[in-house]
């Protein structure tokens, strides 16, 4: 049984109702026309027969009035049947006396009285003789049924691509996304729905991919600081139990917490849908760099490393500040982490931001894959999410990211921003 709220049923009902209305209207017009023709036929017959009789009566007053199955004529009111006696008072003309009879009243020549001619409409009624009323009703029913059949046929054909689209979408699994629907359907309303679904499925695919990456990266990136905190906490417990100072393991816990804060902040930003559409704002690049250096200075507290910021005055950037802070912060954090002694210099100029260090550096093979997730550096240490995120942001905002390095020669990383700043 078809659901009453289904689109298929609505189409079928619309066609059936329209067909019924059309059939009733057309049948009514036919019935009215035939009924009018019936009356006109009776009137024409009365006038023709009465004129023929009156012409004959002028020449021969003894002419008998018509007396047939269809027509009955009477001279004088005294000859009228009892049921027609009231007609005697009528003026000359044609009258519909009953549904079955029409009467013509005319004056006889030389004022000899009135002539009455009565016609029995039953013998000239095409609606009765041909059963046209039943034919019209049957026609209305036939038109209604044909309209319903046509509505069902067209409904099936019209809904076929929509149902096909529904089956395709219903059968999709997350592993099949993104799924291409555009071009598989005509460029009509269904094609527009398919195109809209493809866009939505693309967004769903991006969300699933981002969720999977964040879950995978979170388990990987948070494991290291959690391990540090756990080990340092155990060390604090042992040292405090024997009365030894615990400042050193506490600093390790503090650094691990800072790392976790940076990682969590990055994950929270990446987890927001549409984060790339964050409203741009104009801010001072030197101020941003100074803040990021201060936030990450804990990484070099126990190292013989000096930090300097060289900034050209008045350098600003119009971009999402959160994005810029994550990208530049990752460059500064990597420089601090991989420089054991020496210096880290952050430069702000008209091209963008440059971070140069005198740290360990890296070979060419490592440099080529540092923007890959889970890329490993020397001594098995990874670069984490940092540089892969920087590369992603550069693609989105049309920035340029570059890295120059050599083993034992330090590293120079730079971000160049578009000239329209």
Structural summary, described in words:
- α7 (285-296) crosses α8 and α8 packs antiparallel against α10 (386-397).
- By secondary structure, this protein is an alpha+beta fold.
- The strands form 3 sheets. It has a 5-stranded mixed beta sheet with strand order 6-8-9-11-10, covered by helices on one side. Strands 1-4-3-2 form a 4-stranded antiparallel beta sheet, covered by helices on one side.
- Mean pLDDT is 80; it is low at 376-384.
- The chain has helices at residues 7-59, 126-129, 132-170, 189-221, 223-241, 247-270, 285-296, 321-337, 364-368, 386-397; strands at residues 71-75, 93-96, 101-107, 114-120, 281-284, 304-311, 316-319, 341-348, 352-357, 400-405, 411-416.
- The chain folds into 4 domains: 7-70 and 119-134; 173-221, no CATH class; 222-271, no CATH class; 277-416, Heat Shock Protein 90 (2-Layer Sandwich), CATH 3.30.565.
- The radius of gyration is 50 Å and the shape is rod-shaped.
- A hairpin with a 3-residue loop joins β8 and β9.
How does the SSE layout of this entry go?
Elements: H1 7-59, E1 71-75, E2 93-96, E3 101-107, E4 114-120, H2 126-129, H3 132-170, H4 189-221, H5 223-241, H6 247-270, E5 281-284, H7 285-296, E6 304-311, E7 316-319, H8 321-337, E8 341-348, E9 352-357, H9 364-368, H10 386-397, E10 400-405, E11 411-416
Parallel strand pairs: 6-8
Antiparallel strand pairs: 1-4, 2-3, 3-4, 5-7, 8-9, 9-11, 10-11
Helix pairs in contact: 1-3, 4-6, 5-6, 7-8, 8-10
């Amino acid at each position: 049984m078809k659901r009453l709220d289904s689109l298929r049923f609505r189409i079928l009902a619309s066609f059936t109702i329209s067909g019924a209305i059309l059939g009733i209207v057309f049948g009514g017009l036919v019935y009215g026309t035939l009924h009018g023709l019936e009356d006109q036929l009776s009137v024409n017959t009365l006038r023709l027969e009465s004129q023929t009789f009156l012409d004959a009566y002028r020449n021969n007053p003894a002419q008998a009035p018509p007396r047939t199955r269809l027509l009955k004529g009477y001279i004088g009111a005294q000859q009228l049947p009892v049921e027609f006696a009231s007609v005697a008072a009528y003026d000359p003309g044609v009258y519909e006396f009953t549904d079955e009879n029409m009467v013509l009243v005319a004056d006889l020549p030389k004022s000899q009285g009135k002539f009455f001619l009565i016609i029995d409409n039953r013998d000239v009624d095409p609606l009765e003789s041909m059963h046209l009323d039943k034919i019209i009703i049957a026609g209305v029913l036939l038109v209604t049924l044909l309209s319903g059949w046509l509505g069902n046929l067209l409904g099936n054909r019209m809904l076929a691509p929509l149902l096909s689209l529904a089956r395709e979408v219903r059968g999709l699994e997350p592993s099949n996304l993104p799924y291409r629907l555009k071009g598989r359907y005509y460029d009509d309303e269904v094609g527009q729905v398919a195109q809209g679904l493809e866009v939505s499925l693309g967004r769903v695919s991006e969300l699933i991919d981002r969720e999977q990456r964040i879950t995978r990266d979170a388990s990987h990136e948070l494991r290291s600081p959690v391990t540090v905190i756990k080990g340092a906490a155990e060390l604090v417990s042992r040292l405090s139990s024997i009365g030894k100072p615990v400042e050193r393991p506490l600093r390790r816990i503090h650094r691990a917490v800072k790392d976790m804060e940076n990682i969590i902040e990055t994950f929270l930003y990446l987890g927001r849908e549409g984060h790339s559409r964050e409203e741009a704002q104009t801010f001072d690049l030197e101020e941003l760099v100074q803040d990021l250096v201060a936030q990450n200075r804990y990484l070099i507290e126990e190292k013989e490393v000096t930090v300097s910021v060289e900034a050209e005055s008045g350098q600003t950037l119009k971009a999402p500040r959160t994005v810029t802070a994550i990208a530049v912060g990752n460059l500064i954090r990597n420089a601090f982490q991989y420089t054991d002694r020496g210096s880290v210099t952050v430069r702000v100029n008209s091209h963008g931001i440059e971070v140069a260090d005198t740290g360990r550096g890296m070979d060419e093979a490592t440099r080529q894959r540092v923007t890959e997730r889970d890329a490993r550096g020397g001594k098995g240490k990874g670069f984490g999410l940092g540089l892969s995120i920087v590369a992603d942001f550069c693609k989105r905002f049309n920035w340029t990211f570059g890295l120059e390095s050599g083993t034992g020669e330090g590293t120079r990383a730079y971000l160049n921003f578009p000239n329209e700043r």
